[in-house]
């Protein structure tokens, strides 16, 4: 029982470590949270998490490896992801202006019903944006081709070593045995904790700092545009080189 709990907690840490670093998914979640509210940010996170669940199933079935076997298909997916990121970056840039909080916010005629309907629409949009973007994100595909597909295979996993950007300095601190369903449950549980808490923290901060929403929207636009250009250049290099 103790080993199961330890493995579950290690999975939570693993999920948090992979979900937390800055990137296109968190840029979408952040923008949706501060511009449209917690529900929209949470559903954007669920969109990315749903894509991970699909990749997990496909990786277990060996389907994800099919993408890696055809470099042209993978390059096309990367190119589509780049275009989508630039498109969403344009939308985030537009949100910079619209996200400045008006002085009479919340007192306009028909407010409650309009806000409720608008929240439903934007939440659905946030889920779709993150879901589609995650499906074409080569980093997520690469993860499930390598580390992700091995979560159910017996062996060991250096959890923190796989943390983006800082993994090298954390290697060896948390090594767990793979092959346990508890590790997978904990992994997705860690992602769920992040997509719940991250939007809540941003919304709470935005209520205290009025200028936070346009700043976050602008930063999200820059992150998405940067990754969009990077992905397009990678796709062009694959096709031309």
UniProtKB/TrEMBL annotation:
<protein>
    <submittedName>
        <fullName>LysE family transporter</fullName>
    </submittedName>
</protein>
<feature type="transmembrane region" description="Helical">
    <location>
        <begin position="215"/>
        <end position="240"/>
    </location>
</feature>
<keyword id="KW-0472">Membrane</keyword>
<keyword id="KW-1003">Cell membrane</keyword>
<feature type="transmembrane region" description="Helical">
    <location>
        <begin position="182"/>
        <end position="203"/>
    </location>
</feature>
<feature type="transmembrane region" description="Helical">
    <location>
        <begin position="43"/>
        <end position="66"/>
    </location>
</feature>
<keyword id="KW-0812">Transmembrane</keyword>
<dbReference type="Pfam" id="PF01810">
    <property type="entry name" value="LysE"/>
</dbReference>
<keyword id="KW-1133">Transmembrane helix</keyword>
<dbReference type="InterPro" id="IPR001123">
    <property type="entry name" value="LeuE-type"/>
</dbReference>
């Amino acid at each position: 029982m103790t080993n199961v709990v330890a493995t579950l907690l290690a999975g939570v840490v693993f999920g948090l470590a992979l979900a937390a670093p800055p990137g296109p998914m968190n840029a979408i979640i952040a923008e949706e949270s501060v511009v449209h509210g917690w529900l929209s940010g949470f559903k954007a996170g669920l969109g990315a998490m749903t894509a991970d669940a699909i990749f997990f199933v496909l990786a277990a079935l060996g389907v994800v490896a099919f993408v890696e076997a055809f470099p042209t298909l993978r390059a096309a997916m990367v190119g589509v992801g780049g275009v989508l990121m630039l498109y969403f970056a344009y939308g985030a840039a537009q949100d910079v202006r619209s996200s400045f909080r008006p002085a009479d916010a919340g007192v306009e005629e028909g407010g409650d019903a309009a806000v409720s309907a608008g929240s439903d629409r934007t939440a659905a949009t946030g889920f779709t944006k993150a879901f589609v973007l995650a499906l074409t994100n080569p980093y997520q595909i690469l993860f499930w081709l390598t580390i992700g597909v091995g979560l159910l295979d017996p062996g060991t996993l250096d959890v923190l070593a796989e943390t983006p950007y800082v993994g090298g300095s954390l290697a060896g601190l948390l090594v767990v045995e793979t092959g346990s369903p508890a590790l997978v449950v904990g992994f997705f549980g860690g992602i769920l904790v992040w997509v719940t808490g991250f939007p809540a923290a941003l919304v709470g901060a935005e209520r205290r700092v009025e200028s936070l929403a346009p700043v976050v929207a602008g930063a999200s636009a820059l992150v998405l545009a940067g990754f969009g250009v990077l992905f397009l250049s990678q796709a062009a290099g694959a096709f031309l080189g």
